[in-house]
Amino acid sequence: MNPMNQVPVHATVAQRYRGLLIIWFAQFVTLGLFVLVVWLTRVPRNGSNDALRFWVFDVLGGATFALSFVLKYKLLRRASEQQRPDVVTTAYVLAFALCEATAIFGLVNYFLSGVPPLTLFAVALFGMALHVPRRVELLKASPPDGVSFKSSLQ
Q1: CB 96 within 8 A of CB 131
Q2: Which of 13, 44, 47, 124 has a Cα-to-Cα distance from 135 of 20 to 30 A?
Q3: pLDDT digit string (tens) for 79-107?
Q4: pLDDT tens column, 16-31
Q5: 82 within some domain
Q6: Is residue 92 in a domain?
Q7: pTM here?
Q8: Cβ pair 109, 120 in contact under 8 A
């Protein structure tokens, strides 16, 4: 590889960090759109609210919320050990998607039952707030200066 074509690690870190912030913000906007959909649509409450259905959706929502932290932690640790900034990106995007899944479970339950999904929406928003991308994770996973790294984007 020609040394003139190498991108400095810090520039790559800055680019990845900016990309993660854009994705994170877009996920927040998506959660806001879910709230808007619930506000604009009026689903009548079912007379026979099935308690089992609520438990299933709440458990699934809670499981995806918890899984977002577990998987992000494991992937960030692997990224640091293997010096792979692309794995950091994967860890964050996966965590964002799992928090969004929490809100989606609440939205589906709303359309089935008519009960507003305030709890699962709040949990999803809380999770997204805790998953703010951190530049330090990308720096820890970046190889020392002058060493090229293998990326899934190359």
Answers
A1: yes
A2: 124
A3: 999 989 989 999 999 999 999 999 999 99
A4: 999 999 999 999 999 9
A5: yes
A6: yes
A7: 0.83
A8: yes
Say if residue 140 is exposed, middle or buried (CB neighbours under 10 Å; 0-12, 13-18, 19+): middle
Helices (H), 1-154: 9-40, 51-82, 85-113, 118-130, 135-141
Phi, psi of 83, rounded to the nearest 5 degrees: 55, 55
Other Cβ atoms less than 10 A from the Cβ of 135: the count is 14
Among 25, 19, 41, smallest CA distance to 108 is for: 41
Find where tokens 């506000």 sit.
39
The amino acid at residue 147 is V
For 125, the token pair is 């928003």
Residue 148 has pLDDT above 50, yes or no: no
Domain-embedded: residue 4: no
Total domains in the fold of the chain: 1
Whether 154 is in a domain gets the answer no
Q: Are 53 and 113 in contact (CB under 8 A)?
A: yes
| Domain span holding position 69 | 9-41+51-141
Per-residue burial over 32-58, b if 16 or more Cβ lie within 10 Å, else e, is eebbeebeeeeeeeeeeeeeeeeeebb
